[in-house]
Amino acid sequence: MNIKIAILLAFGLLLAGGGYLLGRGPADQPRGADQPLASIQAAPIYQCPMHPWITSNKPGDRCTICGMDLVAVGGDGAAATVDPDRVTLNAAQVAVTGVATSEVTRGALTRTLRVSGIINDDDTRHRILAARVPGRIETLQVNYVGAEVAAGAPLATVFSPEMLTAQRQYVERLKAGDVASPRAERAAARERLLELGLTEEEIRILDRTLKPTAMVNIRAPLSGTVVSRAVYEGQYVKTNDPLFEIGDFSRMWFVFDAYEPDLAWLRLGQTVEVSVPSLPGQVLTAPISFIDPNLDEQTRTARVRVILENPERRLRYRQTAQALVSVTTPDLLLVPRAAVLQHSGRPIVYLDLGEQGYRAREIRLGRVGDSQAEVLGGLNAGDRVVTTAALILDAQAQLAHAGAAADPHQGHVMPVTIPAAPPPPAEAAYGLLRSLAFATADGANALAADDLAAYQQHLPAMRGALAAYLAGDAAAARGELAAFTNTLAEASDLEAARRAFEPFSTAVADLARTQHLQHREPLWIYQCPMTPVLGTARWLSRSQQLRNPFFGSAMLECGDAVNE
Questions:
Q1: Which of 62, 447, 511, 544 has the highest count of CB atoms within 10 angstroms of its CB?
Q2: Which of 42, 49, 133, 41 is nearest to 400 (CA)?
């Protein structure tokens, strides 16, 4: 702000022709200490329209900063009304500063995001081949990275004694026939061969030849490009050692990071224009297919994915790429970005009042486009705002605030408050929930006493309380309790009654806890960590004594109080 004031002072002295002391005009003399106070109060007060703290009691004086004539603003003891938010210029000052204004209009807001990312292969078609049997690499059919392979093509041959043993066992069971070798044993031996890496075709060949072999072919699981190779001929490998990595490059992913403010603009299906250095002059277009809902903790960005078809392999694996995402949102109230200034994190503009008068006004902004910004409050269509020299006007207004001790929060536009928590229930809904909670507590007490007849007597009250609660609260009708409308049926024994009661009791107890019924009513909430249906279930009780309804006398005191 000191820079603003320095610029303003220099500008004011230039307009005034120089030579003034702050607080005095050329004909102004210090007021005498012996001058009667009454005469000072009765005299008219002359004030600079642009710098309201520059005053005088003599007509004809000029402002010591900008040289403007002081004007009468009060007299006869009346206090002058000063508006420090208003800045007034004369025609010469408007010409020198180059003040220009634009109209606030409704229209389409356009934003172009420029992003950088990486061309990657399709994660769903990326495979790592590991050794299924221990052995020695006899032959490498593919011995360099970048080779194109077809699905099922051999990549390497492994000599494995373990494979030889498994094939011999399978052949022996085949030769033994159904009498000596049950069909289940032959099936198990066949499954073992599949686990060790033999294909169905290779097993059929073994069925015909009955000649075991120690050689195992490592085959490509899909068509693609060899991304990495971890073995050489003659190398010994153990089970699960990595051998090859294959990616399908016929379809690539362009992945880029989007910062949090940019996420307001991105939607699935938006067209992205991708450019890569290896294809100069060419632009690839494709829609956004995925936006990661998780933000990276370090970079505060979310990953965005675009799928690019690559049948001719023009895109290279892990090469860099740049992209443009153009978004247009129609029918919004727009203000030029050049008109918006920031005051302590609050956006303001200078409104053209006419007759070279301008006033600072705080506004509420939405999304910010390339050249315009969305206005959510503080302006109307047809208002004119300053787009050029707004910084000079702001410096003038800041000096006015300093001189007049104006309220820095004057004209503050409060942001829109959007409730993100569920509203508290109305009194009627609370009463219905209270009745349901007490009815549920009575049912739990009957089950804790192993009294099936008493539980059956409480069932109509629980059903009625549940129906009344769902009918009396629209939000409850869409909640979890709606699923229990027809589940509270009469049971033939205590075990069936407890299994039906457990999920219902837990849902009611959880709802009562969210509404803090245990803090407002004589109710207690307990939890059992080993229930038969949910594993962990809760119940309500009118008594502070722990009595488990899910096990009764078998484990009456199993559980803990839920205090929060």
A1: 447
A2: 49
Q: Which of 99, 108, 83, 85 is nearest to 362 (CA)?
A: 85
Cα–Cα distance, 269 to 10 (Å, whole number): 54
Rounded to whole angstroms, the maximal C-alpha distance in the chain is: 135
Element holding 440 (H helix, E strand): helix 427-448
2-5 long-range contacts (CB < 8 A, ≥24 apart) are: 4/391, 4/392, 4/394, 4/395, 4/398, 5/395, 5/398, 5/399
Tokens of 310: 């690559």
Which token pair is 374?
A: 């969305």
More confident residue, 310 or 56: 310
Nearest to 393 by CA among 344, 455, 349: 349
- C-alpha of 235 from chain center: 49
* Structure tokens given for 303: 């990953």
Per-residue pLDDT of 310-322, as tens digits, reads 989 999 999 999 9
What is the SS3 assignment for 60? coil
Token digits of residue 316 = 């290279």
Task: Round to whole Å and give the CA distance between 433 and 470.
Answer: 9
Give the count of beta carbons closer than 10 Å to the beta carbon of residue 462. Answer: 24
For residue 37, what is the enclosing H or E element?
helix 37-42
Whether residue 404 has pLDDT greater than 50: no
Whether residue 500 contacts residue 489, with contact meaning beta carbons closer than 8 Å, is answered with: yes
- Cβ-in-10-Å burial (0-12, 13-18, 19+) of 66 comes to buried
Radius of gyration of the chain (CA): 41
Model confidence over 433-444: pLDDT tens digits?
888 889 888 888
